[in-house]
Amino acid sequence: MDVRTYDTVGALPAADWEALTSGSTLYSTTGFQGVREEELPQGARARRITAHGGEGTAVAGLETYTFTRPPHALYTPADLLAGLVGEERHAAVASRPLAIGAGWSEFRGQVVHHPDSGPEQRAVAVEALAAEALNFAKGAEASVLAYYYLPREDALDIARAHEHAGAVVLFHDVETVLPIGLWDGLDDYYAWLPAKRRPRARREVRTFRDSGRTVREVALPEVVDRIAPLNSALMRKHGHDYGVKRAAEVYGRQGRHLGDRSTLLLAEEGDSPVGFALRYHHQDMLYARVAGFDYDFANKADYFNLVFYHPIDQGTGRSTSAIHLGLGTFEAKLTRGAQPAPLYTVLVGVDQPLEADPDAVRERNRQETEAFGDAYARHVVGGLDTKEWQL
């Protein structure tokens, strides 16, 4: 397997990477990588790795990054390893640089593959990618190479590739997806919901319609200045120091790199913007990225109408299979039809195996999957058995 590396997005052969990301999530595309390249903190480095078959065809690819400190509080391997490794090893993990494989965009990782690659070729390619990622991590003197927020198949592939290094696989979080492709419109959606939930959905749709507010679909670059105050207000409401200038910089950057993929629903009352929901389109999926609201206006179920009901009512499901809703706010999303999917993190010792206690790892995974089921299974349309999530 021929392994090639690229340190910048500009150096990455577009045709090769686009072939690999044709079946991937939005967060592996060159557009999102361009956003992340501009956002890398000082001292961080990036490397894109591709594995090619005998005829030079790209088979699989991997983004890898190194940081002197975690780029976000949710990318902190020492937190995940607490109670699973010895104190000395835990201290080393907490104090040394960190390497992240499979991307770090929006709490989702992925190994990208050519759609025509078979299981055997894929396994060989992932092994080659993992070896190169480990070398990159060693060069940065990292203590841990962490592959965050992976779907199950990718997590198991990565764990097998790093089996000699004692890879630790942990259930980490849950993403939610609204299966909008099941419905042609709101009547189909209402019929699909359990009977006890239909009145609330109808009431929330009616509340928004009776408000007289309208919804326009626009591209992100057209409205950055209009949505920045709304997003800043939402972030500050939730305790974040996030001013209008910063919001404008963030979404101005995304507009430059991802504007052609953007589809933003803007709710207005008269000429005043009341709220928005930013989505990106990739293949047959919409990715709901962020929202914002003017809290001087009364809440008319704006969030659920923009993210759930308006797309359903417009027949978005005729061309889109699902809307990816990301992590968190599980009860609100699940009760309105979103479906949960588990995400896993794979941790690999760089200089030496982590030597995590396998019994403690299994028990952690059991407890955390069961805890999610206990808290949220009753909200999932169709039910949920988290035993299937345990490795």
TrEMBL record:
It is an enzyme of class 2 (transferase). This is GNAT family N-acetyltransferase. InterPro entries: Acyl_CoA_acyltransferase (IPR016181), FemAB-like (IPR007434). One of its GO terms (molecular function) is acyltransferase activity. Its EC number is 2.3.1.-. Keywords: Acyltransferase, Transferase. It comes from Streptomyces huasconensis. SUPFAM superfamilies: Acyl-CoA N-acyltransferases (Nat). It holds the Pfam family FemAB_like.
